Structure formats: C-alpha cells, structure tokens
C-alpha cells in the first residue's frame, strides 16, 4: 500500500459520509412528511383526499422510476440553479436528495400502514385532532419501523453517492473509478470496496440496534 | 343521557348500498348500564360508534347529555368526545407508550400540565389495580391488565358515558368476570352511564340493567334484563337466552312423546318460573299440602340470580285424578309465578331417550 493512499481514502470517505449524511437529513425533512401525506390522505384515512392522493402517488412513482444516473444528468440545470455549479460534492447532493425524497416517502408510508386502525379510532374517541393523531399516534407507533426503513434508504444513498462521484462529486466511488480503474491501481479499488462494505455493515448494524431499542411491541 | 332517534347507517359497497342500521331508536338513562346484544354483523358495533360519531349516521339524530352530536362541527365534536370514554375489544393501547403514558394520553391531548396529569393518573392506576405496572409497556401485560389500562385511559378525562365495544370478548371467562366487576364498580362509584356491546348473554346477565337485542340493523326487543330473561318475545332473544338457560326437557322426556291430551298413567309436565320475592315463597310446599292426592315430582330445578333478583326455574310432574291435577294447576295460577303447561308424558317412559 503506497503512502498516498491513506489521505486519499480518508478524504474520499469524508466526502461520501458528508454527501450521504446531508442528503439524508434534507431528504428526510421533506420525505417523512411526504410519507405521512401519502398515508393519511389515502382512502378511509384521517385526511382522506383520494384525488390528491392519486396525483401525489403518481408523481412519487414517476420520480422513482427514473434510473439515478439519468436523473442526475437530467436535472443538471436545476442543480446549477440551486448550488451554482453542476460539479462537486455539494452539487452531487441535489440529485441524491431528489431521488431519496420519494423513496423515503414510500418507506414511511409502508411503516405507517402497519399502525392498527383501532389506535387511530381510540385517539379519535378521545377527541384527538388529525395533527395530534399523526404526531402522537402514527409517528411514535411506527418509529421503530421507520428507523429500519430509513436505514435501507441510507444504504442505497451510499451506492448512489458512488455514482454521483462520476460527475465530479468526489467520494469513494469517484476515487475507485479515477485511481482504481483509470490509473490501474487495483489496491485502491479493493480498499474502497472494503471501506464501502464496512460502512454499509456499520449503518445496518446501528439501524438494527436502534430499531430494536425503539420497538416495544 | 343518551338518545338515539331514527338512526340509519348505509355503507356504499361495490354491490350497491348496504344498510347496517335501519332506524334505531334508543334511550339510555343516566347511571344505568345498558347492554346491546346481537350476532356478529347485526350492526351493534356500528351502533355504538354512532354514539360518539366515530361513524357518522346516514340519517337520524344522536343526543348525549342533551347535546346533539349529529349537528356539531368537527371541533365541537372533539370537545364533546372527551365526555364519552370508550374501551375496545382489542384494547387499542399505544404499544410505544408505558401504562402510565397510555392513561395520561387523553389528558396530554387536552394540553394538561404534567403535574396535574400525575394527580389524575395515579388514582386511576390505583382504581384499576395497576400501580405496580405503571412503567411497563402493554406488550408486557396480560389481556385483562391491558383492558384495565383501557378502562383507566377511558376514565381519565372524567367522562359521563363509557362505551364498551366487545370489551371482554378477547378475554378468558375469569378475566371477563373481573373486568365486568370493575365496570360495575366504576358505574356505581362514578354514577357513570355505561353502554355495553356484546354477543354474550352472560355479560348482559352479569352487569346490565337494561338490554336491547339488535338483529339485522333493527332493535328486535328491549327492556329490563329481568323482563327479557323471564319473558322473551322474539325468537332471536330466546336463542340468546337459551345459551344460558336451557329450556330443554330432561333427557328422558325428549323425543316427541309429549301429548297435549291427558293419557293413562302420565305426568302433567309444568314449567314454573319464580322471579324476585316469589322465589322465596314455599309455593310448591303449599300445593303439596293442599293437594295431597296429587303426586308431585321434581324433574328439573335451578335457582339463579340476575343481578340482585333471584330467578328460579323448575319443571315438575303432576299425577293424580284429572280434576285434582287441574285444581292444583289453578292453585299455582293464583301464585306469583309463571307457569307453562308442557303436556302429558307417560311415567317411567325412558324409551323416549
């Protein structure tokens, strides 16, 4: 292992963690409420609005059906408008956030569906408002499940962030391609892959532990 | 306390509208325990959900404590619902909250400060006997304990009415008994009006003052529990009661050999029902003394209680000269009991089995 590898790897790891973490936070801030909306406006739910629900669902499906690499290129003008540039670690976060929002939305929706309707009925019988039902029943009751689902989103973000590296996003994926592939340094390739494996294992482990701790069922 | 007038509820289904309730009229007085019994699908759960408007009736009016719920907007309705507690068959507790937090839940919804919540929740924990379980989660509790949490939670906002939707149907018989006793005790202590939905006549018999039998979306029969038990009119009511009080003849007399006309060497089978005070009267002893030539055989006997009222049922066989048997029957008719002549059956006719 050559001496320049350690700083290269640690810089790339830092960029990957930065991209994934910030994208995840921003995407969750929008994606979790989106999931709540997808669930609660559904048929027979507390904010039932079937037409709105169908439109929202179609938009979510449309974004989710675009392969990430195409989405990344397609929204370059938007990225430029938001970040000021289409290249770089920060610029790579725009497509990462946009791809993750509908994914998180669907995952959260799935978690909320697991909350028995009887609990909502019980809260209604106590005079709870729809907002209280969301905040004090739906979200706390599905917190363990949402945690597990978001762990999956983080892991897919790690993979997508490697792809984002291809358009100058930096990070482990970028390092693997530029050094490992283009400069014929297989040891860099192997080191990145090992780091990615460890990173994913770690995220999954933390996610599982947290979900188990939160689950009182 | 609760008045339902002409309640109708129709659901839309792919196969067209389905009528769950077809014009229900009910009045429930303050402080009474009112049972609503029906088979599954009879509409009883829909009916109780109309009382707190978890289901909005398609037509008709709902009044609770003089206020018309069917005329309220969403905000008014939420406020009024705090006066109507509800417990459920599957308890519907928050699995992510402790026993304490579950009971505190309705108070938190009302924005009560934590120290005041504590003052309310602690006596409730004591009332339902769960002081030691305050910091446990529902998954650590038995079914009966879960329902106790449900009851404490329903009582937290000091409601005037408690709705029980099949509250004991998921519990074993011993636990059911304990939960019913708790509901009864709360009803007495807090002067709470209680509506009990069930498919079990035993529940009605154990705690209700009045009962309505609901069948296919209409009320088939209603009245005081003792009247319904001793004098059921509708086939559906008789069916419910027969689960508890067997009206069958002793095995030896079954099999269609009962004759309406007097026959040789036969008993006249008479079913006697004693209610209340008359259950203590020595009516039979009196008859035997008065008609020593009529031989009286006791074939079946049972003394039960419906709430505080003693309730005895027996089948006796009378033999003797025809006119004396008729006179004995006349004597019974002057007494405070219900008698029903079943018919003549040959003595020692065990071949009928």
Automatic annotation (TrEMBL), chain A:
Residues 13-207 form the ABC transmembrane type-1 domain. The keyword Repeat does not apply. The keyword NADP does not apply. It comes from the Bacteria. It is a multi-pass membrane protein. GO terms for cellular component: plasma membrane. CDD domains: TM_PBP2 (cd06261). GO terms for biological process: D-methionine transmembrane transport. It is found in: Cell membrane. Keywords: Cell membrane, Membrane, Transmembrane, Transmembrane helix, Transport. Its main location: membrane. The chain crosses the membrane at residues 17-39, 51-76, 82-104, 188-207. Belongs to the binding-protein-dependent transport system permease family. CysTW subfamily. PANTHER family: ABC TRANSPORTER PERMEASE, D-METHIONINE TRANSPORT SYSTEM PERMEASE PROTEIN METI-RELATED. This is ABC transporter permease.
TrEMBL record, chain B:
Residues 2-241 form the ABC transporter domain. Coiled coil: none annotated. Keywords: Amino-acid transport, ATP-binding, Cell membrane, Membrane, Nucleotide-binding, Translocase, Transport. InterPro entries: AAA+_ATPase, ABC_transporter-like_ATP-bd, ABC_transporter-like_CS, ACT-like_dom_sf, MetN_ABC, MetN_ABC_transporter-like, NIL_domain, P-loop_NTPase. GO terms for molecular function: ATP binding; ATP hydrolysis activity. The keyword Phosphoprotein does not apply. It comes from the Bacteria. Transmembrane segments: none annotated. It holds the Pfam family ABC_tran. GO terms for cellular component: plasma membrane. GO terms for biological process: amino acid transport. PANTHER family: AMINO ACID IMPORT ATP-BINDING PROTEIN (PTHR43166), METHIONINE IMPORT ATP-BINDING PROTEIN METN (PTHR43166:SF30). Belongs to the ABC transporter superfamily. This is D-methionine transport system ATP-binding protein. It comes from Selenomonas ruminantium. The lineage of its organism: Bacteria, Bacillati, Bacillota, Negativicutes, Selenomonadales.
């Amino acid at each position: 292992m050559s001496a320049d590898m350690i700083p290269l790897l640690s810089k790339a790891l830092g960029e990957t963690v930065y991209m994934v973490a910030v994208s995840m936070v921003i995407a969750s801030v929008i994606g979790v409420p989106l999931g709540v909306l997808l669930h609660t406006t559904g048929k027979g739910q507390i904010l039932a609005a079937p037409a709105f629900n169908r439109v929202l669902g179609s938009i979510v499906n449309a974004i989710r059906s675009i392969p990430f690499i195409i989405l990344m290129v397609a929204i370059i003008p938007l990225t430029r408008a938001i970040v000021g540039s289409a290249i770089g670690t920060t610029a790579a976060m725009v497509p990462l956030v946009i791809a993750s929002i509908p994914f998180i939305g669907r995952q959260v929706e799935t978690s909320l569906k697991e909350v028995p309707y009887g609990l909502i009925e019980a809260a209604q019988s106590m005079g709870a408002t729809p907002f209280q039902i969301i905040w004090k029943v739906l979200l706390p009751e599905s917190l363990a499940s949402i945690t597990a689902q978001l762990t999956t989103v983080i892991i897919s973000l790690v993979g997508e962030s490697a792809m984002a590296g291809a358009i100058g996003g930096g990070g482990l994926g970028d390092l693997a391609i530029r050094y490992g592939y283009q400069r014929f340094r297989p040891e860099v390739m192997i080191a990145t892959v090992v780091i990615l494996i460890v990173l994913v294992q770690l995220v999954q482990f933390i996610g599982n532990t947290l979900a188990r701790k939160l689950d009182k069922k | 306390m609760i008045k339902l007038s002409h309640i109708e509820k129709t659901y839309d289904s792919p196969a067209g509208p389905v009528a769950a309730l077809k014009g229900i009229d009910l009045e429930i007085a303050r402080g009474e325990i009112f049972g609503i019994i029906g088979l599954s699908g009879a509409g009883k759960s829909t009916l109780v959900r109309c009382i707190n408007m978890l289901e909005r009736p398609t037509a008709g009016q709902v009044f609770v404590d003089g206020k018309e719920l069917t005329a309220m907007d969403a905000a008014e309705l939420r406020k009024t619902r705090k006066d109507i507690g509800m417990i459920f068959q599957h308890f519907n507790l928050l699995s992510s909250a402790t026993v304490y937090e579950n009971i505190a839940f309705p108070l938190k919804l009302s924005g009560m400060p934590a120290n005041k919540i504590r003052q309310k929740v602690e006596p409730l924990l004591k009332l339902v006997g769960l002081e030691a379980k305050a910091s446990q989660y529902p998954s650590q509790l038995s079914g009966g304990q879960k329902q106790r949490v449900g009851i404490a939670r329903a009582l937290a906002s000091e409601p005037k009415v408690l709705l029980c939707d099949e509250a004991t149907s998921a519990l074993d018989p011993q636990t059911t008994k304990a939960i019913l006793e708790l509901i009864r005790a709360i009803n007495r202590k807090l002067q709470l009006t209680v509506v009990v939905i069930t498919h079990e006549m035993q529940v009605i018999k154990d705690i209700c003052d009045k009962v309505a039998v609901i069948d296919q979306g209409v009320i088939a029969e209603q009245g005081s529990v003792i009247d319904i038990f001793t004098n059921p009119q509708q086939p559906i009511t008789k069916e419910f009661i027969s689960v508890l009080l067997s009206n069958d003849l002793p095995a030896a007399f079954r099999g269609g050999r009962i004759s309406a006309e007097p026959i040789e060497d036969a008993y006249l089978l008479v079913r006697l029902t004693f209610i209340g005070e008359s259950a203590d009267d020595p009516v039979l002893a009196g008859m035997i003394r008065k008609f020593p030539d009529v031989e009286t055989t006791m074939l079946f006997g049972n003394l039960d209680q419906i709430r505080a009222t003693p309730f005895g049922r027996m089948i006796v066989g009378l033999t003797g000269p025809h006119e004396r048997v008729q006179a004995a029957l006349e004597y019974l008719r002057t007494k405070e009991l219900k008698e029903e002549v079943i018919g003549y059956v040959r003595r020692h006719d065990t071949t009928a089995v």
